[in-house]
Amino acid sequence: MFLQDLLTLKKEIQDFQVVEQYEEMGFALDKKERIEESIKEVTEKLDPELYHRFLQIAVKYDRPLAPVKNGVCYGCFVSAPTGSKLVTEHQDIIEFCNHCGRILYHIA
Amino acid sequence: MELKELFTAANVSLDLKADNKDEILLELIDLLQLDEKAREMLFKMLKKRENLGSTGIGKGFAIPHCRSLVVDKLKVAFGRHAEGIDFNSIDGQPAHFFFLIVAPPIEISNFYLPVLGKVAQFCKSPDIEDKLKNLNSVEEYLELLGTISN
User: Residue B47 CB: number of other CB atoms within 10 A?
Assistant: First the structure.
């Protein structure tokens, strides 16, 4: 999830119009290039298999992660989506949507 | 959407206790009442955002913000710190007033940037620092939002 958030931030600060709006509001974005370091730091710590799957899904979808609410994948809007699972080297269990293949996450 | 519609007594604190920038971020996040995992991730994300340039916009205001998957709709919080905290603000002055704004990566209503803009505008209102400094209750804060924001 953190990697996806960083990629969203990267996309945002590459959008000239959005950056212009931020600057008009008075926000400093003078060290934008640091986003690359942050992404590198996170990807280096990710489970290699999970990162590989993430990249594969990212080829197909702009956002490889999707929330699941009431049993519905909010990426493809198919219910009861849980498909394959991956146990990472940190013993986290990652679920994938059976329909679209996105990585699923739950919001409290 | 008006700013006063976004705030409730639960996401406002007029008595932040933090001693530094990180603690301020955590205190603000706590006002959003997220679970521990989401709290931790949002903190890391806000730090990464601050790393690109401070959200301390000067005159005692800071507006930490980001988009994150940990929320499913726009969430805001407001905090006041009496002594002020070094937030690496653009004017080098300590920040006393903090607005936290977090939104999911995609919102159908697309409130994130407009709300951020309204908050930034609110911070530029005449005598706003004094008005916020003199607040005695959260109710007064909510009332102030109603009179100034539009």
Answer: 15
Which pLDDT value is given to residue A63? 87
**The dihedral sign for the CA sequence B133, B134, B139, B142:** negative
Strands B56-58 and B61-62 come out as antiparallel
User: Which residues lie below 8 Å from residue B87, measured CB to CB, with a gap of 6+?
Assistant: B21, B24, B54, B55, B56, B62, B94, B95
- For residue A108, with 0-12 CB atoms within 10 Å meaning exposed, 13-18 middle and 19 or more buried, which class applies? exposed
Contacts of A90 (CB under 8 A, 6+ apart): A47
Q: How many CB atoms lie within 10 A of CB A14?
A: 11
Which one of A3, A7, A9, A10 would you mutate to disrupt binding with B, by most B Cβ within 10 Å of its Cβ?
A9
Length of chain A, in residues: 108
Residue A89 has pLDDT above 80, yes or no: no
The partner residue sitting opposite B69, judged by closest CB among A4, A18, A21, is A4
First CA to last CA distance, chain B: 8
Q: Give the CA distances from residue B27 to residues A91, B41, B103, in Å, rounded to whole numbers and listed in that order.
A: 30, 14, 18
Total structural domains in chain B?
1
Q: Decide if pLDDT at A2 tops 90.
A: no
Task: Give the distance from residue B55's alpha carbon to the nearest chain A alpha carbon, in angstroms.
Answer: 5
For the cut 70, the answer to whether the pLDDT of residue B74 exceeds it is yes
ipTM: 0.84
Q: Report how far Cα A87 is from the mean position of its chain's Cα atoms.
A: 18
Show the domain range for B107: 3-148
The whole-number average pLDDT for the span A31-59 is: 92
pLDDT of residue B34: 95
Residue with tokens 């919001």: A107
